[in-house]
């Protein structure tokens, strides 16, 4: 029996004839139905489009023309460099340019502003003056970042005081390279904020807790190379996604404890350059986990991740049945570690593995065939495996892949990201080498492609885009660009 197509075209139902509609004519094909929409809806459409596409809307309907200036404005000043090398004259000119842009907008609302400015103290009054402008009242999205202006760079400036007044209306906020005192963090209240990013921010754990306490409906949080605290206990009734990136330096995050997160669905680690101890105490809806590097000493999600996983010291403490998607970044492919992980996460449906070495000293053979029937994951749930780093066809890698080919009973797709330089004869050799004809799942497809990739969420877009069921997308490079 063939599976149903991913998309099918359903013909329209024929309209029943009615006596009281016989004299009515169908509307003409060129009827401008867009013009029937309210101004507020049209203005919102324009504000959500890129600038070039927003301008083109005037060709679709005459109604868009007067709305162009009154639609919510997106003002991106990133790279203008308020307070850059141009000195006082350059700072004043940049401020004047942004002020004129707001004035030319005809007093319409401003939806989003992106700013970058120097850490130099001389630049701060210009930023404060702009943030205090009544023209940006009601702002919904704010992103600002202080960049280095000299070596060594000046200290990170405090959170700009005029930005506090914008807190009641903000829905998306990204604050970069500034510092938060406990007094400032405690004074901020974000009743509508859903997405928050702190990038290279200096903040204590107490201040971070106070800041998050003022985010009453927060859904996504990204901590990117923040410092000033070594331990963070997360308790949030609304948070659905969190991304944590840890760099190097003093007072960096060493332990993350998810204490109480009843709505948390994603726990993402875009970049971990230092060891991080992660504990999940209560996250009953956690479905997505990754990227997990193999050299982190401890991940307490009901499991202990060893410092040297090839020694098979991974031990199961409890199973997390809620996790469906797992992404691993590993130096080598270790079947023992993967089998233990599948026991920890028995309901996995998608597995992403990025490997950089051809293998280890083990042969990745699994002699315990009598245990295969008790492996719930490969017998009932695992449908997709995407592997990056399979290029050498070494014995260890081949045995690793063959285990899933021969035992994953419901597998639908096993994808291999390979370099473009791989010869066609190498690909032609794989079906026999990997015993694809003996696959356990008759529905399984095997894709060797150099035109695809799976990506790692690296910014607020990936962490906050909850419309994607799987953030570790595997798509063509052309589409991704």
Largest beta-sheet details: 14 strands, parallel
Q: Give the strand line-up of the largest sheet.
A: 1-2-3-4-6-8-10-12-14-18-19-20-21-22
Helicity level: 10-25%
Shape: globular
The strand count comes to 24
As a percent range, the share of strand residues is 15-25%
Radius of gyration over C-alpha positions, nearest whole angstrom: 27 Å
Write the layout of secondary structure elements.
Elements: H1 39-48, H2 51-60, H3 64-67, E1 73-76, H4 87-104, E2 110-118, H5 124-131, E3 141-147, E4 172-176, E5 179-180, H6 182-187, E6 195-199, E7 202-203, H7 205-213, E8 220-224, E9 231-235, E10 241-246, E11 255-260, E12 266-272, E13 277-280, E14 288-293, E15 299-300, E16 303-304, E17 315-316, E18 325-330, H8 335-344, E19 350-355, H9 376-381, E20 384-388, H10 395-407, E21 413-417, H11 424-433, E22 445-449, E23 452-454, H12 460-464, E24 474-476, H13 477-480
Parallel strand pairs: 1-2, 2-3, 3-4, 4-6, 5-7, 6-8, 8-10, 9-11, 10-12, 11-13, 12-14, 13-15, 14-18, 18-19, 19-20, 20-21, 21-22
Antiparallel strand pairs: 16-17, 23-24
Helix pairs in contact: 1-2
Can you give a write-up of this model?
It holds the Pfam family FBD. It comes from Urochloa decumbens. Residues 1-33 are annotated as: Disordered. Residues 127-353 form the F-box/LRR-repeat protein 15/At3g58940/PEG3-like LRR domain. Residues 376-412 form the FBD domain. This protein has a domain at 285-481. A 14-stranded parallel beta sheet has the order 1-2-3-4-6-8-10-12-14-18-19-20-21-22. Strands 9-11-13-15 form a four-stranded parallel beta sheet, with no helix packed on it. The chain has 13 helices and 24 strands. It has helices spanning 39-48, 51-60, 64-67, 87-104, 124-131, 182-187, 205-213, 335-344, 376-381, 395-407, 424-433, 460-464, 477-480; strands at residues 73-76, 110-118, 141-147, 172-176, 179-180, 195-199, 202-203, 220-224, 231-235, 241-246, 255-260, 266-272, 277-280, 288-293, 299-300, 303-304, 315-316, 325-330, 350-355, 384-388, 413-417, 445-449, 452-454, 474-476. With 481 residues, the chain is of the alpha/beta class. Helix content is 23%, strand content 23%.
